[in-house]
Write a structure and sequence with these properties.
By secondary structure, the protein is an alpha/beta fold. The protein contains 9 helices and 14 strands. It has helices at residues 34-43, 61-64, 67-74, 82-88, 151-157, 171-176, 181-188, 196-206, 226-239; strands spanning 4-9, 16-21, 24-28, 53-55, 78-80, 100-102, 108-111, 114-120, 129-135, 138-143, 162-166, 213-217, 249-251, 262-263. The strands form 2 sheets. It has a 7-stranded mixed β-sheet. It has a 7-stranded mixed β-sheet with strand order 7-8-9-10-11-12-13. The structure holds zinc ion (ZN) (2 copies). One zinc ion is lined by residues 58, 60, 123, 125, 145.
């Protein structure tokens, strides 16, 4: 089985990303209710009972809302680093010890032939991390919830075949919008979220000849729009002489609709 994925849901209303390869099936984050998660799995033709584990990126509610219920219902192992476990444990309800596992930051864990590499990000959570998925020479990067994209992160995520990448807000919409100033300052800070422009600039540093698809993810409902995100990222990439629309394409993700299961 090739490396495949679906962004089941993405955004501040809830995140969940499905990844499979080599008969192993993983879910990153469960930011929606257990019931909605079951519906999303039906839509991509997969059964949550077949999952080999839930990976948790960080303890913000848009990433863990459904973790406890979903893990109990389908008897799934949960993987998170120690600080994330401490920060989220009280919000999960009781999880049997045999379903709790540590997945440290900057560790590679192998699920059959699917290798998952975690890397730390700058974001206002206990110890947030995201992942590179490796299988049969293919590389898929999942990176959202980043205050900024450091050179260290760029080194880790360089040269992937596909990216699921944060494109959180349009700077002008955020500046002009209704959010209180302290919230705006948090989003714009080094531990907040990546804007459309900054996403494009970071991507232009990591894209390589084999990159074929980029999914713009974790769009703000209040401070972004799908078309605006895509057009802004496209324009900045073109300004950087990147072959957008030729070698690789940009794709939308949705808060409640899964992207079709796609081979990397
Ligand atoms: Zn988030
Ligand atoms: Zn977050």
């Amino acid at each position: 089985m090739s490396l495949r994925f679906s962004v089941l849901a993405s955004g501040s209303t809830g995140n969940a990303i499905y990844v499979e390869a080599d008969d192993k099936k993983l879910l990153v984050d469960v930011g929606l209710s257990g019931k909605k998660m079951d519906e999303l799995f039906t839509e991509i033709g997969r059964n949550p009972k077949e999952l080999d584990g839930i990976l948790v990126s960080h303890e913000h509610s848009d990433h863990i809302k459904g973790v406890g219920v979903f893990a109990r219902k389908h008897k799934l192992p949960i993987y998170a680093n120690e600080k994330t476990w401490l920060a989220m444990e009280n919000n999960l309800g009781t999880i049997p010890t045999d379903q709790k596992f540590i997945f440290a930051t900057e560790e590679v864990k192998s699920f059959g032939g699917l290798d998952v590499e975690s890397f730390g990000v700058s974001h206002d959570a206990a110890e947030p991390m995201f992942y590179c998925f490796h299988h049969a020479g293919k590389k898929l990067v999942l990176a959202t919830d980043m205050g900024y994209v450091s050179e260290r992160i760029k080194g880790t995520i360089k040269g992937a075949d596909m990216y699921i990448f944060e494109s959180n807000h349009d700077l002008n919409m955020l500046r002009m919008g209704r959010y209180p100033w302290n919230v705006k300052r948090r989003i714009l800070s080094d531990v907040g979220h990546v804007s459309n422009e900054d996403a494009a600039l970071a991507l232009s540093d990591v894209i390589s000849d084999n990159t074929s698809r980029i999914y713009l993810a974790h769009l703000s409902l209040d401070n972004n729009m799908k078309d605006l995100a895509r057009l802004t990222v496209e324009q900045v990439l073109k300004e950087q002489d990147m072959p957008v629309g030729e070698q690789f394409e940009l794709f939308d993700t949705d808060p409640l609709k899964p992207t079709p299961l796609t081979s990397v």
